Amino acid sequence: MLPNAVSIASIDDVCSMFSSVPYLAPRSEEYSATWTAVDLLPPPPAGCSCSPAVSAQAKFSLIDQATGEPEPSHVRGTTGSQEFTAKGFGFAKFIKRAWLDKSTCFKDDCFTIRCDVVVYKQIKHSVEERRVQSPSSSGVVVVPPSNLNSQIGDLLASKETADVTFQVGGEVFAAHRCILAARSPVFKAELFISEMKESRDTTVIRVDDMEAKVFGDLLCFIYTDMLPNNVPRMTRQEEVAMAQHLLVAADRYNLDRLKLICEEKLCKLMDVSCVATILTLAEQHNCHGLKKACFQFLGSPWTLNNAMATEGFEHLERSCTSVFKELFSKVSAL
């Protein structure tokens, strides 16, 4: 039995940036009796107490020992690539111990977690390789990577030349009409085309039915085409809720790429406790891929029976009758 907070180093040093793959028991007494956590930590270089930032993707999969395949309800990972630092990456509530004890993933007092890591190495060129060769010039011309998203993001952070203010849940956000209109047809209509005098003439616009944190992340995506990466670690339930709220906001403002990012994240976070609410959301906001993923997840009798015991399933039956019937039609055909 692995003691609390003791790591297991990977045997095969397939990537020097991640030669240590620790699986940790719960980090606090709050979770110790209920949950098992999992973390991926890059080891510090020799002679250094800190780890360099590494751009990578990571995925944890709990293996079903009866089939040798990943258990669909316990596959979690990053959404695209992200910067890994000494803090690492992981989930505070990865496996519920009561569930694990009764599952086929736990056998002979052992369970297996597979960790898949994809590291994006930065290609460095020498000055000679970057030299622009021409008969008339021997100068060195180096073209740096684009930092347009960073520059526009700085504009949002500095609030310079901002010409519109949004009030959301007690917080105030300064923004730029032209950038919002260029990125979102809904903002364009509200800020420039709409005949609503409030939207065109006032410098303070109130946004209802949205949390301030969600609107802040929405603005970050509009300005940088990325979600903020300096967010504090959240529980699985908090991650699901945030992805759901962002999906609704993305649909509201016609931000298709952000909507797909949220769909992808919900597919990875899906489990029996939230699949019904995710399916309801997918139906209400025309997320066809997410809806298909929910149907696939609910394809096994065990998963379906456990999902039916949740409040979300009762809400699905009341609010989306057609989807409820479609689900059971597909399940009965299996």
From TrEMBL:
PROSITE patterns cross-referenced by the UniProt entry: BTB
Domain BTB: 162-231
Pathway: Protein modification; protein ubiquitination
Alphabetical GO biological process terms: protein ubiquitination
InterPro entries recorded: BACK_BPM_SPOP, BPM1-6, BTB/POZ_dom, MATH/TRAF_dom, SKP1/BTB/POZ_sf, TRAF-like
Domain of life: Eukaryota
A Pfam family of this chain: BTB
UniProt similarity note: Belongs to the Tdpoz family.
Protein name as it appears in the record: BTB domain-containing protein
Record organism: Eleusine coracana subsp. coracana
Gene: ga00293
